[in-house]
Amino acid sequence: MESNFNKKVLNATKWSVITEVIAKIVSPIVQMILARIIDKEALGIVAIVTMVTSFSEIFVDAGFQKYIIQHDFKSEEEYSNYSNVAFWSNMIIATIIYLIIFGARHSVAKWIGLGDNPIVLVVACIQILIVPLTSVQMARFRRNFKFDSLFVIRFIGSLIPLMVTVPLGFLGYRYWAMIIGSLCSACYNAIALTIKSDWKPRFYFDVEILKSMFSYSMWTLLDQIVIWMTAWFDSFIIGVYLSPYQLGIYKTPVNMVTALLGVFTSALVPVIFSTLSRLQSDRKKVADVFFRFQRMLSYIILPLGVGGFIYRSTVTQIFLGKGWGESELILGITILAIAIRTVCVGLYSEVWRSIGKPRISMKLQIADLVILLVGSSISLKYGMMIFVLVRSLLRFDLIIPEMIVMKKELGVRIKDSIRNFTRPVICTSIMGGGAIVLRSIFTGIYLNVFGIIICILLYFIVSVSYTHLRAHETCA
Question: Over the stretch 453-464, which tens digit does the pLDDT of each residue have?
Answer without folding.
Answer: 999 999 998 888
